[in-house]
Design a protein that fits this description.
There is one protein chain. The protein has 181 residues and is an alpha+beta fold. The protein has 2 domains: 74 residues, Arc Repressor Mutant, subunit A (Orthogonal Bundle), CATH 1.10.10.970; 84 residues, Alpha-Beta Barrel (ADP-ribosylation fold). Helices cover 30% and strands 20% of the residues. It has a 3-stranded antiparallel β-sheet with strand order 1-3-2. Helix 1 crosses helix 3.
């Protein structure tokens, strides 16, 4: 793993899961002053020379687009497990979205729908390939779910844009879900 990937993992942990460990003051949209994050990172010998330029480079070179910088602040796009709800702007989703999951979760999903579990939102993908990659983290032969996002949206389910590949939702009832065959 290269230094920018390691930095991305460290920043993700700080912004998504444990801002209090880094003494970060996060606003209701998940933004943290860059200077505050850098001060926290500089406490570690490993990150003592990290700069805002390095953070920008990390974001630019990342395939997964986990973070963004704007107006002197930084935030993670998605994946938060902290108790505070990170507010997202509602958006109309594409007609169809996908979700990759382990086979062992299928019965529960078909009964109860997709739930955020330990995260703040259900994560959905715009592409089958992305959903498959996510599912493979938990199962070598994951199930790919097709979400009728357009119908769900029209019937009151809220969707939020995470980034250009990831969509978020509070929960998806099973009536909007079918398995990709």
């Amino acid at each position: 793993m290269n230094k920018l990937e390691e930095l991305s993992k460290e920043v993700s942990y700080a912004l998504r899961h444990a801002p209090w460990e880094y003494e970060l003051e996060m606003d209701e949209e998940g933004w943290v002053p860059i200077g505050q994050l850098l001060d926290a990172l500089h406490r570690s010998e490993k990150w003592k020379n990290i700069s805002e330029i390095d953070l920008s480079e990390m974001i630019k070179k990342s395939e997964k687009k986990r973070h963004e910088i704007k107006d002197g602040k930084i935030r993670a796009f998605y994946g938060h497990s902290i108790p505070m709800k990170i507010l997202k702007e509602e958006k109309m989703p594409p007609d169809i979205l996908y979700h990759g999951t382990a086979r062992r979760f299928m019965q529960s999903i078909m009964e109860s729908g997709l739930l955020p579990q330990s995260r703040q939102y259900v994560h959905l993908s715009q592409e089958v390939e992305t959903a498959e990659n996510v599912g493979k983290r938990h199962d070598s032969k994951p199930c790919i779910l097709i979400i009728d996002a357009k119908r769900a949206w029209k019937e009151g389910i809220k969707f939020y844009l995470g980034n250009e590949k990831v969509w978020l939702s509070d929960a998806i009832p099973s009536r909007y879900i079918k398995e990709l065959q």
